[in-house]
Amino acid sequence: MQFPRGLLIDLTPLKASPAFARMWIGSTLAGVGSQLTVVTVMLHVYTLTASSLAVSMIAVAGLVPMVLAGLYGGMLADAFDRRRVALIAATVTFLATLLLATLTWLGVETIWWLYGLSMIIAAAGSVGMATRTAIVPRLIDRDLLAAASALNGVAFGVTVMVGPAVAGLLVAFTGYGWTYTIDVVLTLALFLGLWTLPALHPEGATVRPGLASLVDGWHFLKRAGNIRMQYLLDVIAMTFGQPLALFPAIGTVLLGGGAITTGILTAAVAVGTFCSSLFSGRVVHYRWHGRGIARAVQVYGAAIAVFGVVLLIATLWPSDETGAPAVPLIIAACIALAASGAADNVSAIYRNTMMQAAVPDAMRGRLQGVFIIVVAGGPRIGALYAGGLATLTALWFPPLLGGLVIIGLVAVLVRAHPRFRAYDATNPEP
């Protein structure tokens, strides 16, 4: 098989499938709004509590509903019209965000409302993401899946780059209500992308949602060693290398700049994601996806460790009585976070492609549900790790220790699984 060797991103999936292009555009616009709310809720909780642990508990609170919704949503996607399932999930997300904005404008929001609505949004997002991802292989050819994953990396980069930065500015200059309201408007774009899709029923034998469907998916996963291994590596990376919950405290008490610095740090991750996708022409044609995942995760761990070193230096940095931001350290932190975003995106390109190419269509929804639980659940466990350990030690300690742990664990696990190292994209095997 001959692959093109261009350096820039391959746009062929957008040209080859108008349906994929519409869904991609709608998901991107809605994703910007979603990131506005993610960062704004973090800042909102920190304002109410002044506690990094309370901020981290936002993510933890959404973990159980997200796990249950991801599993059940995957079963729904393998039994019913995936377009309809995705539309229902989008509707729940829209209504929950609308309620969040309404409560804020009325001035009656509490930390418990923020937690509760975040849980609902996380659960609905888990169902929607699993279903939309399962839809993609039905819209484009298999040899374009890696390129489609890179395009999704661009979308993610744009959403996380624009959303948090704008959220920080809006919170600083206008307050919380406008930010939530903008998300309500942007969520409507998601309906446009999904509404124009055709009906997409699963191919092959289907199993109605329930215990039998869950057991069927579990039996498949037990046989799918490569899929299990990529799950494990991602959980390790996100558990020990996810410092997002620390950003409000870092911006307020360590680097200076408050909400604006919080938004900049979050956006820096997305800058790396965006750039690595923009120049993914050769990345998407590397066929040894198991090796690619392992190397990318280790680079991610190294970048997070460097971020911890920057924070350690910040504790020794001469204090400014005016409280001005420590600009050199903010720049250094952003470079490390951008590198982590680039590495994570390369890993995601290979993980997504492996999931979509190696898993049968009739099983894809359930496996995507588990995959989303891993992708979204790992950071929530990581938020608890970072917030809890930082409360007991210092802000710099969790990322420095976690980055080193990631590098070591990945080296040991990949060495013990030669089949994963030998995974070949031209002959995908789960």
TrEMBL record:
Keyword Cell membrane: yes
Ranges of residues in domain Major facilitator superfamily (MFS) profile: 19-420
Pfam families, alphabetized: MFS_3 (PF05977)
Keywords: Cell membrane, Membrane, Transmembrane, Transmembrane helix, Transport
Subcellular location: Cell inner membrane
Membrane topology designation: Multi-pass membrane protein
Predominant localisation class: membrane
UniProt keyword Disulfide bond, yes or no: no
Ranges that cross the membrane: 21-46, 52-73, 85-106, 112-132, 144-172, 178-200, 231-250, 256-279, 299-317, 329-350, 370-390, 396-414
Name of the featured protein: MFS transporter
UniProt superkingdom: Bacteria
Native source species: Microbacterium istanbulense
Xref: InterPro entries: MFS_dom, MFS_trans_sf, TM_effector
